[in-house]
Design goal:
about 180 residues; mainly alpha; 8 helices; about 0% strand; disordered N terminus
């Protein structure tokens, strides 16, 4: 999910693809696409934690599944992000938003070599940041799902019925009547 969101953010969030927004305004106006990417990944990770906790009866396994899912997703994002930066390097060099971002960090207009270096370092910084954010988010969402799974397990367990009390036999006694008071 994060890889698709990253790709859509890089490609469709920049002016170089503004023409697509003009050609297909209905598609870009639909709220489901944004909500699918924003909420789809976290919901799936939490459900993975729930299913893992229910199947393995282990909260630690649910956290592990969340962390590994985040790590695998961020690894895919790393390869995709760097690959897209290399593949679309020329387009990113002409992108006004990249030039604007460079000018925010430096007081002088960029040379082509400086802008190229900025584009690569910016992409590398972004994907490296996701390499630790995604596993952390996966651990948190796996924990939430694992906690839900453990609650489901606890609620679905059949409790054994005991006869009488769980107190030992010596502690169980018959009720002793209270002494009667004479009226004065």
């Amino acid at each position: 999910m994060s890889t698709i969101g990253y790709a859509a953010g890089i490609l469709f969030g920049t002016p170089m693809f503004a023409r697509l927004r003009e050609l297909y305004p209905h598609f870009f106006a639909l709220p489901w696409g944004h909500w699918f990417f924003v909420l789809g990944g976290p919901i799936v990770l939490a459900l993975a934690g729930t299913v893992t906790a229910c199947r393995t009866r282990s909260f630690a396994a649910a956290v592990q599944v969340g962390a590994l899912s985040g790590l695998i997703g961020s690894s895919i994002l790393f390869v995709t992000g760097i690959g897209m930066t290399v593949a679309f390097h020329d387009a990113l060099m002409k992108d006004p938003s990249a030039v604007h971002e460079y000018e925010l960090s430096m007081p002088t207009p960029p040379t082509p070599a400086q802008l190229s270096s900025f584009v690569y370092w910016d992409a590398l910084g972004g994907v490296l940041m996701m390499m630790w954010i995604s596993p952390l988010a996966g651990m948190i969402l796996g924990s939430i799902g694992g906690g839900g799974g453990m609650l489901i397990l606890r609620a679905s367990q059949k409790r054994p019925r005991t006869e009488g009390s769980d107190l030992p036999g010596q502690m169980r006694s018959t009720v002793t009547p209270l002494p009667l008071h004479d009226s004065l």
